[in-house]
UniProtKB/TrEMBL annotation:
<comment type="similarity">
    <text>Belongs to the pyridoxal phosphate-binding protein YggS/PROSC family.</text>
</comment>
<dbReference type="InterPro" id="IPR029066">
    <property type="entry name" value="PLP-binding_barrel"/>
</dbReference>
<keyword id="KW-0663">Pyridoxal phosphate</keyword>
<feature type="modified residue" description="N6-(pyridoxal phosphate)lysine">
    <location>
        <position position="40"/>
    </location>
</feature>
<dbReference type="Pfam" id="PF01168">
    <property type="entry name" value="Ala_racemase_N"/>
</dbReference>
<dbReference type="InterPro" id="IPR011078">
    <property type="entry name" value="PyrdxlP_homeostasis"/>
</dbReference>
<comment type="function">
    <text>Pyridoxal 5'-phosphate (PLP)-binding protein, which is involved in PLP homeostasis.</text>
</comment>
<feature type="domain" description="Alanine racemase N-terminal">
    <location>
        <begin position="12"/>
        <end position="229"/>
    </location>
</feature>
<protein>
    <recommendedName>
        <fullName>Pyridoxal phosphate homeostasis protein</fullName>
    </recommendedName>
</protein>
<dbReference type="InterPro" id="IPR001608">
    <property type="entry name" value="Ala_racemase_N"/>
</dbReference>
<dbReference type="GO" id="GO:0030170">
    <property type="term" value="F:pyridoxal phosphate binding"/>
</dbReference>
């Protein structure tokens, strides 16, 4: 292993301990929680190192930055598009990334549907819901979720596999527990509606600052950037 890989491994080990502790506090099995390594701060070399030390899921939030990295490493790992997605860039993402975490409007759904149809594949998406209601955050307002599901229910190339949210940045992660709990409650509500295209098993929530609280509230994908890869 190179020095860089050793460093990543050490960080990963520390994160693992914290994940295990959060799982045991909340009676969850470790296998229910997956780490998406958010690599927006770093170059393609670090992605190679992450894959080498056993990270499986890679998350990128900007299409332009992600494409060259994907060219190099896309065959390895599972790629997640986690950032705001412009409608005219959806064509670059569908067919490359395994999951889109940021489906938040009908125009984007229509474009993903169109691209999925052209490539003859069903695109697993996360519905991004703005639980905190912050105006600066993307995401569907909770009030619009039902209408959105109705309007996408005939789209055969979109599968809503999960929900995603971004919590406000706060000092004390306990403060954002209600945001994560709120997303979990939306998962249960949506599953009661029984839309065939929206059987929700996944919750993408929790970042470097607040992933333990997110795990306690049911996260299945935590999106970790700085705690894992940020050069300090
Ligand atoms: C940057 C980013 C993250 C990771 O943030 P950290 O605080 O560095 O862990 C997670 N999700 C999204 C959508 C991001 O853009």
């Amino acid at each position: 292993m190179t020095r860089e890989q050793e460093l990543l491994k050490e960080r990963l080990d520390r994160i693992e301990e914290r994940i295990a502790a959060a799982c045991s506090r909340s009676g969850r099995d470790r296998s229910e929680v997956k780490i998406v390594a958010v690599t927006k701060y770093v170059g393609a070399d670090t992605i190679g190192d992450l894959l080498k030390v056993g990270v499986e899921h890679i998350g990128e939030n900007r299409v332009q930055d992600a494409l060259p990295k994907y060219e190099q490493w896309g065959e390895q790992g599972v790629w997640h598009f986690i950032g705001h997605l412009q409608t005219n860039k959806a064509k670059e993402v569908v067919g490359r990334f395994s999951y889109i975490h940021s489906l938040d409007r009908l125009s984007l759904a229509r474009e993903i549907e169109k691209r999925g149809e052209a490539l003859n594949l069903v695109v697993p998406c996360f519905l991004q819901v703005n639980i905190s209601g912050e105006e600066t955050k993307f995401g569907l307002s909770p009030n619009d979720v039902l209408a959105f599901l109705r309007e996408t229910s005939n789209m055969k190339h979109i599968r809503i596999a999960g929900l995603m949210t971004m919590a406000p940045h706060v000092e004390d992660p306990e403060e954002v527990r209600p945001v994560f709990r709120g997303l979990r409650e939306w998962k249960e509500r949506i599953n009661e509606w029984k839309f065939p295209h929206a059987e929700i098993t996944e919750l993408s929530m929790g970042m470097s600052n607040d992933f333990e609280v997110a795990i306690e509230e049911g996260a299945t994908y935590i999106r970790l950037g700085s705690v894992l890869v940020k050069p300090d």
